[in-house]
Fold:
Amino acid sequence: MKSSRLSILLFGSLCFAITTIVVAYVVADGYIDRLPNHQGYFLVPVENTVSIAPVRSPKRTAFVLIDGLGLEFARDMQAAKTLSRIGQCHPTDAGSLTISRPMYTVISTGVEVDRTGARNNDDTAPVPVQSIWQVANIAGLNVHAASALPWWDELFPSTFASYLRQPDESANLFAQAKLGDLSIIHPLRVDSAGHKYGSASQEYRDAVALTNTELSAFIESLNFETDLLIVTADHGHSASGGHGGPLPDVSQVLTCFAGPGVLASSEASPIDAKTIAPTMSVLLGLPFPKHMRAGEDSLDQIWTIVDPTSLGVSYISQRHKDIEGFRQANSKQLGQWLGHDEGLWSELYSREGRTQSLWWAATILLALVVLACSYRLRKFSVKRAGLSLVWIATITVTIVILYGFVRGTLDFTSINLRDEFINASVSICLSVGVIGLAIHAFFWRSLHTMLADQLTLIALLLLVGVMHFVAYGVPLGFPMPGRFMLFLPFLYGAMGISLGLLCTLLAGTSLALHFRKT
Structure:
């Protein structure tokens, strides 16, 4: 009877370990698809019209987004120095999720990534927030785009009068792009070099240099008495390659404005990426994108960029009033969501964030229950339970610290290329796991005790994986998690698969030895 019971326990352990591997794989492999929700969150549409026209409007406007160009590299470009001399250039905060498609959305709409619902590069559905390109199209302007990617057209369909898809990233898009009322020019060469070689590489610097040459020639072709130029980027790259997180080398870019309506200024005060689209609205005499962030916003940065004398004092005064109207409408809607007359975005973020925090508090309680049940069933003393807990915590913390040391960050930036991430993360988890088992064997010399502790470890991992779904939802809800919790499912997948595999080997070995004895 005892032998039969042990057989069942060992077989159950084997099944549980395999289940952990499967769940870890599903969580990690499906996480990218879980991130976006192109229905958006807590959007406040505010309709507005331009009742007073600006004194000066550009004849042609070119919006250049140099994909993957970090702040320090942009500052060294001769093209940026030229634009700074005739207009102004600002360090720009791209935000917490420095991924391209989400950033195109933020830059185009003035809405933060938490609410646009665009959170990966794979979801090709349109976003629910209005862009400056759509505003221009509705106003009767011809909007053109040139890019190696179809993403702008996917995000904002039925908007562009022409869309040049140039798959050759080495091509000079500045020479090929069609200029008209409003044009997007989106070279991808710098970003590709960043992914392949990292921003510390000569290849990345060469890509920046070539783009600088092409942009400088493009600048020479413009007449800044009538032509408006905006140059920015969606993110930079880490030294080893990659982006996605909020660290300065990837989240800080440069945005330059030059042309009609731009105040020539040598000051370079920081701005927010959400300010770009509303600033373009003022410079072009267009309505603001109707979902733009208003209230606890960065919209007053506009008045450091535009020239009230050039655009007209009465026009600027009216645009001030328009922004106040947006703020009042947002405050009123927030009040309805929050249950009082007026509200703040920070209040809504805090309320929704508290719900997520409560789920994680429940996770901690459940983890304590798992540990208590494990140690009670095994009749551990307080000292032995403490040693087991230290062993589990040491393995977990060592994996996290070692991963951060090897990969540079504990956020999306460390992922970069899929195969590279998988090889590194699984190698780290397996190495630490094997060393942990070796230490366990040295001190306790019991295969069954080792298996039980490993089962407890992966049970805790399984709990964390499940609770991430519960706390943040499917698709990922509002607000977005912090940088580590946003990244966690990827590392969780590597840990669950690796440690689950080791547990499977332990359970299989124990089961084989048991059958051999019987």
Observations:
- The chain has a mean pLDDT of 95.
- The beta strands are 60-65, 88-93, 143-147, 162-165, 182-186, 227-232, 252-258, 271-272.
- The chain has 20 helices and eight strands.
